[in-house]
# Entry
Amino acid sequence: MKISVLGTGMVGETIASKLVELGHEVKMGSRSANNEKATAWVKKAGARASQGTFADSAAFGEILFNCTLGSGSIEALEAAGKQNLKGKILLDLSNPLDFSKGMPPTLFVSNSDSLGEQIQRAFPELKVVKTLNTVSANVMVDPARIPGEHSVFVSGNDAEAKNRVKQLLTEWFGWKQIIDMGDITTSRGTEAYLLLWIRLWGALGTPDFNVHLVKKG
Amino acid sequence: MKISVLGTGMVGETIASKLVELGHEVKMGSRSANNEKATAWVKKAGARASQGTFADSAAFGEILFNCTLGSGSIEALEAAGKQNLKGKILLDLSNPLDFSKGMPPTLFVSNSDSLGEQIQRAFPELKVVKTLNTVSANVMVDPARIPGEHSVFVSGNDAEAKNRVKQLLTEWFGWKQIIDMGDITTSRGTEAYLLLWIRLWGALGTPDFNVHLVKKG
# Structure
């Protein structure tokens, strides 16, 4: 499949590398066509890897991953261009983290709104599925690195898109317990969880953790 | 032990009943000395159960449970009276839920502050330990009702108080995996988790669930 990965940070590189490894063609998108990190990644990742602007990447991909920083996501998608987004599924992996007020970060949108919703409102032509934002990059593509069962969430307005994403999370990365939270407003829950996640990272001393949802009966 | 349970709602009644069952003397506290729900509870719970004002209850207890609604917690503790709180451990089970804007609720404090911190700031004479606020009342006192391992958190500034609470959570209710999050500011994490919790309740159709923290190695 041809896949667009928007963002050149650790999440973007981890997702893009895994997808190339799985045999997909991946175009990493960034602000400029000759981004240094994207260039280095293409060199390392080989023939199925390419790079370009956000617009190049979005035009290329049949399916899109938003791996940009939350604070730059709307701008990146605007640069990608509405004509390149139309009708496509966007896996939104971003979090609205605000590092400007020191550590640990706060959220620049939360409680009565979410970044997932902001993106869906700004780009109604996209089928936004918020997912994977509750685990570290390495865990996203390799849940088996953590022993035992654990969970990931999906939020989105389009049932078919969510089902497709659930299928891909299992097929590509090996996710087993995928909780369908409901529509995109449920991103408020999984994004707010980051306020717990960053403190668990501190308490446990590693980002290699996750939660397993267990219920009665 | 003599225990103060502040609040007559489902959480207060569940905690108070369990503690009486374990052989403790429990005084349930509320705004008035003849609160209807507290009266009914005392009648049902038997000889070790009693009730009174917030001040009566706090004066009675060697250890305190805050089971009031988050929106009324500061007021309840003010009514309890500083002289009755001095040096005591308060297990803060409350959440800053705001139901005034419809369902699902939002949080009236979050992100850069928390109710746990507000309480600790307002009552420096208390040793506030935020805990159990991430599970439903029935799960608080009976984690075994959910199969398998799952986790509960403690946040607080006083290490000795946290250790005492961890011991009590295990001894009284059977909690096994208790995660020490750090100081009281980490309440921001466990309170924000409520925004996920209320949506999980919706998605799963039951409050009888919890998360198990799993990590690598």
In short: The interface with chain B takes residues 101, 106-107, 110-112, 145-151, 179-182, 186, 188-190, 192-193, 195-200, 202-204, 206, 208-217 of chain A (CB under 8 Å). The longest strand of chain A covers residues 209-215. Residues 187-204 of chain A form the longest helix (18 residues).
